[in-house]
Amino acid sequence: MGDILSVIEKAEESFDLEQAEKLEKQMRKNEFDLDDYLAQLRQMKKMGSFSSLLKMIPGMNKLKDVKVDDKEFERIEAIICSMTKKEKRNYRILNGSRRQRIAKGSGTSVQEVNKFIKSFEATQKMMKQLKNNKGGMKKLMNGIDENTLKNFKF
Question: Residues 132, 126: contact at Cβ < 8 Å?
């Protein structure tokens, strides 16, 4: 219980209440886009390394084989920052040439851009499950295993 309290304390110190309320409204309306995702990544970065945060969350010990590369967040940030506002609002418009431009602009490969898009889709799916399930987070955590996270990249 002490670890989860530490996570909550870190979150309270790092997160902007106004931004959190805005995010909640967007999640309820299914309007969570890549700008919101980037804002959340930056908020998480203020709390410390993602691997240390994961260790504090009860139930995450089930995911021992999931490797967290904190440098991946820098690549994700570069990918999102290489997108236009229109692309950030609607990633589904990303065709081959747009993905190539984003990859060049972010110093990554098209494959990395594709992997990120798949992981973002997995994030949206998990958020939708959380929103639609009664018992929300508890049910979601019980349903998470390595197979659920295969497209979700940290």
Answer: no
At 11 the pLDDT is 61
Other C-beta atoms closer than 10 Å to the C-beta of 83 total 22
Stated as kind and residue range, the H or E segment containing 44 is helix 34-47
Burial of 14 (0-12, 13-18, 19+ CB in 10 A): middle
For 84, the 3-state DSSP assignment is: coil
Give the phi and the psi of residue 83 in degrees, each rounded to 5: -95, 155
Domains of the chain in start order, with CATH, are 2-143 (1.10.260.30)
- List per-block mean pLDDT (blocks of 10 residues) for the chain, which spans 154 residues: 58 64 66 86 78 66 64 93 96 96 97 95 82 56 51 48
* Helix 34-47 and helix 17-28, axial crossing angle in degrees, nearest 10: 140
Give the burial string for 98-115 (b: 16+ CB within 10 Å, else e): bbebbbeebebeeebbeb
The model's pTM = 0.67
